[in-house]
Amino acid sequence: MINARPLDKFAAGLAFILGLATILGAIGSQLLGGLQPCELCLEQRLPYYWGLPTLAVILALWNRLPLPVWYIGMAIVTALFAWGAYLGLFHAGVEWGFWPGPAACSGVGGSLSLDALNDLQPVIGCDVVQFRFLGLSLAGYNALISLAIVALLASAIAFQARRGR
Fold this sequence. Notes:
2 strands, 62% helix, two-stranded antiparallel ribbon, 165 residues
């Protein structure tokens, strides 16, 4: 059992570890696994790129931040991961054909020269699922993981509000 030590910092730390493992897994699946991210995949990484460094600063300065600054920082990180959950859900819906994806997810756009054809990266449509596990795509898992991070951060805020400083 976790003793009466601050559950707020434990929950925030767990959210950080979960988020870090998730973004490292996404980057690893691209670099080592050969999965090519689409436009929506890359956009889903933004909450991790912005939220994790912010959360790392909050964790590093945990007892030194003024309480209003702590709450604002935690609210910003929570909102970023809520946005990430929305993006994951939206992308999963595009993959299932529930709604259309953005136009940026298809075609190469602009004019091409024959020399430029050598430098082209594969264009992956946002509705193309490259990997499923137990019926869910990586976008679906990102939505669930982002929701878990939001729940952990919200519980950290609630624990802090109950505990006070």
